[in-house]
Structures are given as C-alpha cells and as structure tokens.
Amino acid sequence: MKLLLDQNVSRLLVGELALSFPESSHVANLGLGSATDREIWTYAGAHDYLIVSKDSDFRQLAFLLGPPPKAVWLRVGNCSTSAIAGLLRLNAGVIARFAASEEEALLVLPDLGAD
C-alpha cells in the first residue's frame, strides 16, 4: 500500500512513514509539484497509489470518478508533520482495509483532537 502525499502535506512524511507505508512518495518527488488535482489523480490510479491530502478537491474527484485511485482526506487543519504521521500510523489498519475495499473511494481521517 503506497501513499502519494499531496503538495499540502510535508515531504518529510515520506521518511517518517517509511516503515508503515513503504514505497510512498510525495508529488514533488515525482515531478508532480505543479500538477493539477486531475493529473495527480490520473498518475495515482496508474501507479497504485492512495492519495493523501488535506485538499477537499480529491473528495470531489473520488465521488465524481470513483476508484481507482482512492483518496485519504485529512481533516486536520494546521498541525505538525509529526501529528499527521501519527494520525496515519494510528490508522494504518483502517487505511489497509480501505485500500482493499473495491467500492470505497474516500476515507476521511479526522483530527486526533477533534470532538
């Protein structure tokens, strides 16, 4: 299960998540730093990535186009890179089940501190 981290999350997450999510990458590392959301969606689908973003536009694409690929929407607001890494590691099992589901296109992960 490979994650493709969107521009709005830190590139440092690739290293922080290497054990939990090997082969993951950041859009900037793949030459997609200035790509449109649709181009990222197409790339992710062709290369078996789950898109991880704080951008609600991927939510729209998930509903409009369906999988593949799939999107993990981080509803976390402004928070540290380590907090996002912790949220993703904490939900690794949930993310794995989501990735294995044929029907689901979007997984929403709320902030750890959210009510």
Order of the strands making up the biggest sheet = 2-1-3-4-5
Total strand segments: 5
* End-to-end gap: 29 Å
Mean pLDDT: 92
Summary tags:
alpha/beta, globular, 115 residues, 5-stranded parallel beta sheet
Describe the structure.
37% of the residues lie in helices and 19% in strands. By secondary structure, it is an alpha/beta fold. The protein has one domain (2-110). A five-stranded parallel beta sheet has the order 2-1-3-4-5, with helices on both faces. The radius of gyration is 13 Å and the shape is globular.
Secondary-structure blueprint:
Elements: E1 2-5, H1 13-16, E2 25-26, H2 37-46, E3 49-53, H3 57-65, E4 70-75, H4 81-90, H5 92-100, E5 106-110
Parallel strand pairs: 1-2, 1-3, 3-4, 4-5
